[in-house]
Amino acid sequence: DGGITQSPKYLFRKEGQNVTLSCEQNLNHDAMYWYRQDPGQGLRLIYYSQIVNDFQKGDIAEGYSVSREKKESFPLTVTSAQKNPTAFYLCASKTAANTGELFFGEGSRLTVL
Amino acid sequence: GQQVMQIPQYQHVQEGEDFTTYCNSSTTLSNIQWYKQRPGGHPVFLIQLVKSGEVKKQKRLTFQFGEAKKNSSLHITATQTTDVGTYFCASGNTGKLIFGQGTTLQVKP
C-alpha cells in the first residue's frame, strides 16, 4: 500500500538530547513537509522540501534540522536548541504542483522530560 | 508572511444543528484547501477550491471560496456525531502550505 510512514509513534527523551524523527513515503511525491502541532495552535510549518537535496525553512525552523538525500525520505532532527520540543510532529507529502492535496503520516508524539 | 486566520476556535453543537467555520486572509489566496482531523488522528484532505466564488458540496458539507479569494467557509448541515474533529483550512503557493489554527467541533448526541 502507498503511504507515508512516520516512526517512532511515541518518543521520550531527556532534555538536552537530540532526537531524529523518521518520515518515509512511497507515493513518488517530490514535495515533503514537517509540521508541528500544539493544542490550540493548529499546524505550524517547520521545514519543507520540493526536490531532493533542497529544502526551505518554514515559520518555526529554529532548533530543527532536516535532510533530503533521497526522494522518499525526509528525516527531522529536533536539536537541544529547540526550547520547547514536546509536541506532535506530522510529516506530509504531495506532488510538486502548486495545487494538490497533502498526504499525512500518522504522526510522532515527542515528550521531553 | 502569508497567514490564514480561522474562526471560531471551538464549537459545541447539538446533533442535528448546523456548523460553520470561517477562514480569512488579508492577502489574495491562490487556492484554499480543507482538512479534517479526527481526535487522535492525522489531517485528511477534504477538498480544494481554486476559482473565485467557487462552491462545492460533499453530501452535508458545503465549501465556499470568496469572490475576492480572501476568505472561505465550510458549512455542515445537520451535524452528526461522526463529524467531530478539528477542521483546518490551508493555503499556499510555491510549495509552502500554511494552515489556519483549526476549528474543533464537538457534537452532543
Mean pLDDT score of chain A = 92
Task: Give the rounded overall mean pLDDT of chain B.
Answer: 94
Fraction in beta strands of chain B: over 45%
CATH homologous superfamily designation of chain B: Immunoglobulins
Q: Total number of β-strand segments of chain A?
A: 11
Please explain how this structure is put together.
The complex is a heterodimer of chains A (113) and B (109). With 113 residues, chain A is mostly beta strands. Helices cover 0% and strands 50% of the residues of chain A. Chain A has no helices and 11 strands. Chain A has strands at residues 4-7, 10-13, 19-25, 31-37, 43-51, 54-57, 64-66, 76-78, 87-94, 103-104, 108-112. In chain A, strands 2, 4, 5, 6, 9, 10 and 11 form a 7-stranded mixed β-sheet that branches. In chain A, strands 1-3-8-7 form a 4-stranded antiparallel β-sheet, with no helix packed on it. In chain A, a hairpin with an 8-residue loop joins strand 9 and strand 10 (103-104). In chain B, 37% of the residues are buried. The model of chain B has no long low-confidence stretch (mean pLDDT 94). In chain B, 0% of the residues lie in helices and 55% in strands. Chain B is mostly beta strands and 109 residues long. In chain B, the strands form 2 sheets. In chain B, strands 2, 4, 5, 9, 10 and 11 form a 6-stranded mixed β-sheet that branches. Chain B has a single domain, classed as Immunoglobulin-like (Sandwich). Chain A binds chain B through residues 31, 33, 35, 40-45, 48, 50, 56, 58-59, 90, 96, 98-107, and chain B through 1, 6, 9, 30-31, 33, 35, 41-45, 48, 50, 88, 90, 92-102.
Summarize the model shown:
Chain A is mainly β. In chain A, 0% of the residues lie in helices and 50% in strands. In chain A, the strands form 2 sheets. In chain A, strands 2, 4, 5, 6, 9, 10 and 11 form a 7-stranded mixed sheet that branches. Chain A has a 4-stranded antiparallel sheet with strand order 1-3-8-7, with no helix packed on it.
